[in-house]
Protein 1
Amino acid sequence: MTTAMAAATTTPTSRALALAITETRLILRNKTVAVSSVVLPVALGVFWSFQFESGGDPARQAVSITLQLAVAMTMGLYLTATQTLVARRHTRVLKRMRTSGLSDRGLLAATLAPSVVLAGFQLAVFAVVNVVTGTPLPSDPVPLVLAVLGGVALVVAAALATSVVTPSPERAQITTLPLLFVMLGVGVVAAIAPANGWWPVLMVLPGAAVGDLTQLAMTGGAWSAGAAGLPAILPALVALVVWPAVFGMFAARRFRWDPRY
Amino acid sequence: MLIATTATVSRLGTVDLMTETTSRAGRAVAPPEPLTAVSVRGLRVRYGDFEAVRGIDLDVRRGEVFALLGTNGAGKTTTLEVLEGFGARSAGTVSVLGFDPATERAALRPRMGVQLQEGGFVEELTVQETLALWQRLVDRPDRPGRLLDRFELTGRADVPVGKLSGGEKRRLDLAMAVWGSPELVILDEPTTGLDPESRTRTWDAIQELQDAGRTIVLTTHYLEEAEALADRIAIMHEGRVAVAGTLAEIVAAQPARFSVTLPEAVVDLPELRGATHREGTRVQVRTDDLQGDLTVFLTWAAARGVRLPDLRAAPASLADIYHAVRTETEDRA
């Protein structure tokens, strides 16, 4: 055990990056995962981009963009991240990695990062396709940026929380369905729902804020007075903060690194 | 510099050497590296209503191989997980290389290698890819090639881990645990499922680590493994340490035995200190005074001209002690 050894050159960042790169390779190497997490969401998003006739109406175009955001965040990110976390816990890889030089935060970040990067890649593809198909640019890009960032935070926190109640990788196909359908459905409804009446109540559901912010980005008026004289964007912003916090707190209390417990 | 050495008997009944260093002027100087690598006092681990570990004390000295023996569910793996910083304790204090693993795992990680009881591999990665990734994740420098050679995995380097045999996976697991020769190596059943040849090779690797001054804590079901490797042993049963010490100390504390088959005509037996059990012509004696009782028995046999062709005498084996621990607990229940 005294053979000359290579010098240690690892840093916390390089360690997390090494695992993230390996996880990305594994996603792309696994054909089933690659199709369900990359090809299918991209195909759906591109299909909507070409098929959705908005007639140049930004409000209607918001529905198509919301669908693209929702599919990238749910199928591309949430589903993949949950399956990866559960699979790595189930096979005790998370436990093994905790004996390495990775911190717990670094380990989680590295395990989840490939899903986030793949979702980002999907959104970039959608953006290019939307420009090519002549989709009007948002009148206020800030709500759209907030929708992307907040949506990513929401589904990452949701993936951590869902992994708590998912005993095996196979069961992730079932446990992810409720939030997946809610986010897809509510996002679209929020994007087309009128601002008055009972529709703003939808904002209490996870994912509705993404649709609402996309609508505000496309049609404008995010900072003008809405209900009770407050900025129209406020309910969506509150929902974007509250839901990740709720999922995050649940995960922080109940997250398990080892299938034994 | 004066080094005062005193011997004390620990709560486990073993002898601990306490070394105290002072300068000639009587002032305390920088203390030497502590002699104890692992110290556990009053450890309790509870899962809901079930208490898996029920107030154990352990001391593992630097440079020794310490074996935790016990049946399934005895609390061995739970204890190891507390030492590794993975398991939460309900009560007690734990120090590993001077750190509390519950709160200082980050400081402990670079100094400790861990072999899991099972799993822990991304099965799609090849052996080479697994070790190459490990090289980038672990703070201790080492080379995949060295470990592939050492654990005879070079020919399997390009094989996905999922296609390795159980023995090959255990060797890869051990290679990752000893990566960079950490100060403390924790091995959870390192030879379970291995064939005898692979087991011997694993023992050699553990012996090499000890020769390099490393501390090893291992759990095992195999008594011969503990006998072959361990400097000290603790036998756990139902969450408690039933027996602890060196093999010699443990054996000395248990009754020895001798057995013999007598001719049918022999009816009476000599008066012995130990417990005599007779079944037909077969006689077994368990005694704390093997030499004394054996002398009495041989004198008695010689006086009567009784031949004892199959006389066997032996101190208690680890297997005897292990079974005695189980039986005592079951009897109490």
Protein 2
Amino acid sequence: MNRFMDTQESDAQSIYSYILKKLNSWNLAYIHLIEPRILGGMEIKDHKFTTSVATIFRKDYKGLIIIAGGYTRETAMEIVEKGDADLVAFGRHFISNPDLPFRLQHSYPLNPYNRKTFYVRGPEGYTDYPFYSQSKL
Amino acid sequence: MNQRTDEYGQTIENKSKLLFMILEEVTKVFPSNCVGIRFSPWTT
């Protein structure tokens, strides 16, 4: 379970399992889980966790689960249909697609994101990604 | 890695104690159904 030696609890699963079971009685708005495929903004291509973190903890937590981390339209629908998550959050695709929900709804292609402009000042990579109709012109 | 030897380390209950202390306080101000928690179980 330790991807990076000593950087996480060796018994992370038991700790989170314990926490999530306890949280059932708190009637919280949601629990938001992050997939390990994002680490410090870098996408993990070869991560060994093939099972979604939502799938692992769904058995412990019965409330609303939001999952995020490297999802596509297809995998997002899949995890919700399976019932392992209730909502899927998008981060990077939202940066490059101001109309992301519209695009996902209609299965339109997404603007690729440019990681180099993620954390810089100015409008480039921040407010200049085109809407779907604009990008078709 | 939590290597504490006080009441915030060693056992699962202790390691998760701070979270529930915070939750206890936060839900005194906001109703619990307005509070969400974000976890990265495999990354931190």
